[in-house]
Each structure stands twice: as C-alpha cells, then as structure tokens.
Amino acid sequence: MIPVPQFFETKTEQPHPAISSGGFCRSCRREHRLGPGNTLLYCRQLMQSFTDLRTIDLFSGRSPGVAELTTDVLFGPARGKMFGVLECIRADGTTTILRAFSGQYNGNWLVDGWVPPVFVVEDFFALSNQVEPQIKALSREIDECAEHDEKWLALRKTRRKLSRQLMKDLYALYQLRNFRGESASLGEAFNGKSGIPTGTADCCAPKLLNYAAEHQLRPIGLSEFYWGRENSSKTRQHGTFSGSCAEKCMPILGFMLCGLNT
What we know:
Layout: E1 21-25, E2 30-34, H1 39-53, E3 81-89, E4 95-101, H2 121-143, H3 150-171, E5 175-177, E6 183-185, H4 186-189, H5 204-214, E7 218-227, E8 241-242, H6 250-257
Antiparallel strand pairs: 1-2, 3-4, 3-7, 5-6, 7-8
Helix pairs in contact: 2-3, 5-6
C-alpha cells in the first residue's frame, strides 16, 4: 500500500457542491457524484507541506528530497498542476488517504506515495519508445522539404497517420475500473459528445478512483486543487479548489463511480 502519513486534526469542513466530482453513467442511466467530505482539510495540509518543504517528495523518507520533484517547477514556464486527495474506507473499517497529481510530474509518472496512472507504465514506454522515434524522424525530414510540395504533403500525411495510431494504441492501455467490479477501456468508458481529448484519465480523480477500485477501498470524499503559476487559459489559479472538468473527467467518472452507492 502507499504510505499514509497520520493526521490528528478533528476539524471538519462543510461540503461544497461546486467542487464535487462525477458524471453520467450510461450503464445505469444515472448521475454519480462524490463530494469532498473531509478531504478539504487533507488538501490544505498538503498545501502547507508544499509551502514549507517545496517538494512533492514527501513520502519516500529521503532527505533531502529528489531535486526533480521540487514544487519550484510549478511556478516556472511549465506552470502549475492539479493535485487530488481521496479519503477511503478499507474492508476492516479503517480509513486511508490517497493522493495524486495530474499527468506526469516533471517527466515522472511514478513518485513514491502518489497513486500511479491507470495504465502499466512499462507498457506505455515500450509502445512510445517504439513509435516516437519514427515520428521525430519524419518531422526532421519534413523540415528539410520545401513547404507544400508533394513530398512535404506526403510526409505530413504519414506522420499524422502514425501519430493517430500511436494515440489509439496508447489509449488501449488505459483500463478503468469501477465499484461494480467492472473494467472498461478508455474508449468504452468515455461518454463524451466528441473525440477523446488528449490527457483524458490522466487527471487526479480518475487515478485516485481507479486505484481505490482496484484495491477494494470505498471512497468517502474527494477534492482537487491547483498549485503553481496560473495556467495559460487563466482557468486555474494557485491554491484554488475545483470539481470535475467537463471535457476529460465528467465523461468517464460516471462509469468509474458506478457501484459506489451500493
């Protein structure tokens, strides 16, 4: 299990409906949602650790932490990142706290004390390392061609086809679990009106819920917050909470939360 630091505060914050997580489930034709419960408190404790220690390397026992896991990178050109906390109940009735960051952290998918992505990282890199060099080679060849000539157009078409196939193959690695004991590929679980956006299922909530379902943990509260420099679209500000995003998370969280209320 992921190591869990012990907290002893007893203060409970009032749930805030605007930061709940959820979505519509096609299987049962119902909306499933999960509120923050006590996790706003745990998020603020995490924020305080970021402020005091300036690293996400909080659970490895290393001192000092790994340089590439510093929170300073979140205030630079790469901008900030979403973080999430999920409170769960184990089968024996005790509670555990899970934590996640969105996407990769400074190039790392796996960091001690943080839940992993919803795919097997070794499989992801094996596939990427096989195809991405081909895409980069095509890009170099395209740069050497006269723009808009016949070869330039043909190479761009080949690169586009290769990139789309790579994305399709990578998405096939994403296996989402719910609390009915069901598993679905990203394409099967996605309930959006258009194509699957890049980065879907890499956000905090899908990572946390997938880990909980896989390890027979029952979630009772979920919160997500943004830490770092404001994002380029100015929709995320430092230290603020938010609920499920409509483009990437809501189309899959309905499936992922299904079965939790039973």
